[in-house]
Amino acid sequence: DSQTYYPGVSYAEILLNSSEIEGENESANGAPLEKINRYLITELGRAKYDVVTIMGGGNNAHSKYPPYDLYDEMYEYAKLSGAIVIAITNPTKNNLRKKSKYPTNEDLAEHVRYSTVPDAIIDANKLFSDPSYFKSDMVHLNKRAHRELAEMWKKEVAKLLPESNIIGENLKLSETKIRKIITDALKNERYL
Fold it and tell me: Are the C-beta atoms of 56 and 36 separated by less than 8 Å?
């Protein structure tokens, strides 16, 4: 979604522009979880990654029936590929300004917080609860928050892949194909 997409500013862009990791930022502004899921399937069909990070849901907030199950399906799918999975709760706070009869971003973050599937969860929703971490729209994190989020990500990866020495050395992401997993997933309509 836009938190990850944010060109030149997002935590993902900060990480990819550093000399510490190589990878892809497969995101799009305004992407709901369903679209993120399609990106994930496509990307994991093209390449194998050591770490897959999933942040999303802000564009599903206020849906009458948000697809909570897609979070765990995406996490499980990424784990099937052999990747370590880092989930990041979406920090968006604009929904706090008004009451909603539908689930909010806070509800979506709560689902991610209690998932047992990811290898690590960065609770950006709680960590960045102060308005000073946001642009004036209270939707998008500012540069300072994205820099802090990138540092948190590196620390989580260093714990999960201690041999990578990501803090100080490069983490190289492998490039092998995993077509069977993608083919099997594409046969199952719930992934489409």
Answer: yes
Task: Quickly list DSSP for 79-112.
Answer: HHTT-EEEEE-----GGGGS--SS--HHHHHHHH
Cut 0.70: pTM above it: yes
Residue type, position 146, single letter = H
> Are 89 and 124 in contact, with CB atoms under 8 Å apart?
yes
Task: Name the token pair of 80.
Answer: 């099937």
Q: Which two tokens stand for residue 124?
A: 């950006």
The DSSP call for residue 172 is P
Please tell me the distance from the alpha carbon of residue 123 to that of residue 67, in angstroms, as a whole number: 19
The answer to whether the CB of 22 falls within 8 A of the CB of 172 is: yes
Residue pair 3/54 in contact by the 8 Å Cβ criterion = no
Q: Over the stretch 30-84, which tens digit does the pLDDT of each residue have?
A: 788 888 889 899 999 988 889 999 988 777 767 777 788 899 999 999 999 999 9
The radius of gyration computed from the CA coordinates of the chain, to the nearest angstrom, equals: 16
Q: Which amino acid is at 64?
A: K
E strands present in the chain: 51-55, 84-88, 120-122
- Secondary structure (3-state) at 2: helix
